[in-house]
Amino acid sequence: MYRFLLSRQWVILTLIALVLVPTMIELGFWQFHRHERRVAQNALIADNLGAKPLPVEELTSPGHTVPRADYWRPVTATGTFDTAHEVVVRRRTSSDDRVGMHVLTPLVLRDGRVVLVNRGWIPAAADQHSYPPVPPAPKGEVTVTGRLKADETTGASGIKDLKGLPDRQVMLISSRQQAELIGREVLGGYLEQTAPDAAGGTPEMIPEPDHDSIGAHMAYAVQWWLFAAGVPVGWVILVRREKHDREAGTASDVPASPESDTAEAQATPSR
């Protein structure tokens, strides 16, 4: 009855179904785990943004790698901006998706150490080889409040650390690289400045990271699992249809019996 399942066509179809089911289940769990990570990250961002600001020296030090648990923590730093070693970070977007640069200015603390401050976004120069007009940093001693971030890497950001860039332009924010250029001890990570407001509104402050959206990962997970459930159902439907078609074809191929032929001839009037 089901010997057709041993045919080459049906063996291939069955093997494909057997491969698709676990693959789709695994893809569903992959999306589910991405959903869980997004929810956990949103909770971390919300908790850290709401924390009480701490002196930056309490959370980082020279050579320190800022752990994920401290990302976006509000910190304060008091010192003097060193505009002589200010650099711009290329290929950064504003809150409305304009491509420009971030202004990275070292802040020399009272003890002589340095913390990097991302003062915000500015438009890029018309000529990519030129240094853009940068709004001046405040003079004298200032207290800056900002969100603590870890040093950027190509692996985490996807941004290539290109070499041979114009003077005072970088691709990634790295406290180690800047320590070599400045010649001072630089605290690990950097600050995204949130206060005080920049004079004239420029550089544009970097907005808070999104911690409300959870994306569509959960919907994708359910979708993959529904696909996985649909494969065996579809396979059964195809098998039953094939069986029905074969039975119907076999019945139509059965020759009529002699008795039925005689009865048919007698029922037909002669001309």
UniProtKB/TrEMBL annotation:
Biased composition (Polar residues): 259-271
Chief location category: membrane
Compartment list: Cell membrane; Membrane
Region feature Disordered, mapped onto this chain: 244-271
InterPro entries assigned: Surf1/Shy1 (IPR002994), Surf1/Surf4 (IPR045214)
Transmembrane segments: 12-32
Coiled coil (residue ranges): none
CDD domains per the UniProt record, alphabetical: SURF1 (cd06662)
Membrane topology: Multi-pass membrane protein
Keywords in alphabetical order: Cell membrane, Membrane, Transmembrane, Transmembrane helix
A matching Pfam family: SURF1
Keyword Nucleotide-binding recorded: no
Keyword Cell membrane belongs to the record: yes
Family according to the record: Belongs to the SURF1 family.
Full protein name: SURF1-like protein
Species the sequence originates in: Streptomyces tanashiensis
